[in-house]
């Protein structure tokens, strides 16, 4: 990470590398051990509270099942308990995937790594910033709108094309592939665009799904730690002096724009 107050030095670089090594080592620790048996119902299409207890034991044999708010007992929007659990499971996996991208993106932008080519037809270079929120503020409004529309398209595609909905017995986390009719070569099949993992053994696939959930949870904690420290120095002691301060509204992604509605109340 970079800091406005202190110039880069070898000790600073060592601190960066040590922090990254610690974070990635912690992430690796969240992977399911090879020797850990995977229960056959860990990714079952039937989502019940019993399934959650079984899944929790596979994900973390130490903590196991932990639901202090009783979310697994809820019935949202008049749906059944099983349907609500399917919704929660899908939401967690989805947010974990986004958080993993965000975690890496924050590190990239904090080190001022950008695309090597212009980001607009007018030839404007990609803006450099000290943090991911500052980089977001610096990009043109048109780029922000394009990003939001693309995310909206992915949401629409997911809900409209899944073979079996996650609230109707489908598998949480499933994202329908883009076939060649719409996207040549399946370029937007982000997990496996070349189809290399289709023939993996079932046990390997299930272990990867468990690892994805654990790493997604860790990434959600990590990105919130980054954002908290960037707003209030010292709120995350391990990151004090490492994360540069961000003076904008981290929870209002369009607040820095001109002519865009301030929507911080929606986040």
Describe this structure in words.
With 267 residues, the chain is mostly helical. It is 45% helix and 0% strand. The chain is built from 6 helices and no strands. It is globular and about 50 Å long. Residues 1-45 and 258-267 have low confidence and may be disordered. This is Chlorophyll a-b binding protein, chloroplastic.
Please describe the structure with a list of short key phrases separated by commas or semicolons.
plastid; 267 residues; disordered C terminus; chloroplast; photosynthesis; disordered N terminus; mainly alpha; globular; 0% strand
Q: What's the SSE pattern?
A: HHHHHH
How does the major sheet shape up?
Answer: none
- Helicity range of the residues? 40-55%
> Which runs of at least 5 residues are low in confidence (pLDDT < 50)?
1-45, 258-267
**Rg of Cα set:** 21 Å
Average of the residue pLDDT scores: 77
Count of DSSP strands: 0
Structural class: mainly alpha
Strand content: under 5%
Using the alpha-carbon principal axes, give the shape: globular
* Count, helices: 6
* Amino- and carboxy-terminal Cα gap: 27 Å
